[in-house]
Amino acid sequence: MNELVYRAEDLYGRIRNCQACSLAQTRTHAVPGEGPLDAEVLCIGEGPGMQEDKQGRPFVGAAGQFLNELLGAAGFKREEVYICNVLKCRPPGNRDPLPAEIDACRDYLDSQIEMIDPLVIVTLGRFSLSKFFPQAKISRVHGQSREIGGRMLVPMYHPAAALHQQSLRETIVEDFRRLPSIIEQARALRTESTEHGEPVAQEASARQIPLFE
């Protein structure tokens, strides 16, 4: 078995059997994430919803359908990107994640970032953005790219935001349409680092990185 596949299966097994917080008592299925392990793009959402909890897969409800459209606008098929969430289990009633729940899942998400080693991380919504930039406001930084840990990070509105506020729909689509050019920047960054023999950092501390301009 490929070592990377073995690592992924081990990680997914630990997530599905996790008892680190109270969400383990209310979930139907944990939702580790899915996508190619060598994906250039990693999308990080907030947490599973009702349909995700039922199926054990990320972004399969209405927001997921819109995410598929957004990826299409960027020239991608869903199968070409890796998709996961900050939380691996659904909060009851789809409430906001609690700090203790985010902390309980932190190592899982860090392991996924290290394992996938994407060129670009797309944060979907404020909770995934706050992992990297705790003080940033999604309404001010959406669509802007920033180098972090040897890769590009792009904050985007969560697809569900457009379902609740139709006026955001075109804004989100336009943000995603800029993704191909950001990926090209990330490829150039990775090539430059490789040519200079510089190791690509897996992640940098948000506290050490200035906020978006």
Short description:
This protein has 213 residues and is α/β, with parallel strands linked by helices. Helix content is 44%, strand content 11%. The model is unreliable at 200-210 (pLDDT under 50).
Fill in the keyword field for this structure.
single chain; about 210 residues; alpha/beta; Uracil-DNA Glycosylase, subunit E; 5-stranded mixed β-sheet; about 45% helix
Helix content: 40-55%
Helix segment count? 9
Strand order of the largest sheet: 2-1-3-5-4
CATH topology: Uracil-DNA Glycosylase, subunit E
Question: What gyration radius follows from the Cα positions, in whole Å?
Answer: 16 Å
Q: What's the mean pLDDT score?
A: 92
- Unreliable spans: 200-210
Q: What structural category arises from helix and sheet content?
A: alpha/beta
Number of strands: 5
Shape: globular
What does this molecule look like?
The longest helix has 18 residues. 44% of the residues lie in helices and 11% in strands. It has a 5-stranded mixed beta sheet with strand order 2-1-3-5-4, with helices on both faces. 41% of the residues are buried. The protein has a single domain, classed as Uracil-DNA Glycosylase, subunit E (3-Layer(aba) Sandwich). β4 and β5 form a beta hairpin. The protein is an alpha/beta fold and 213 residues long.
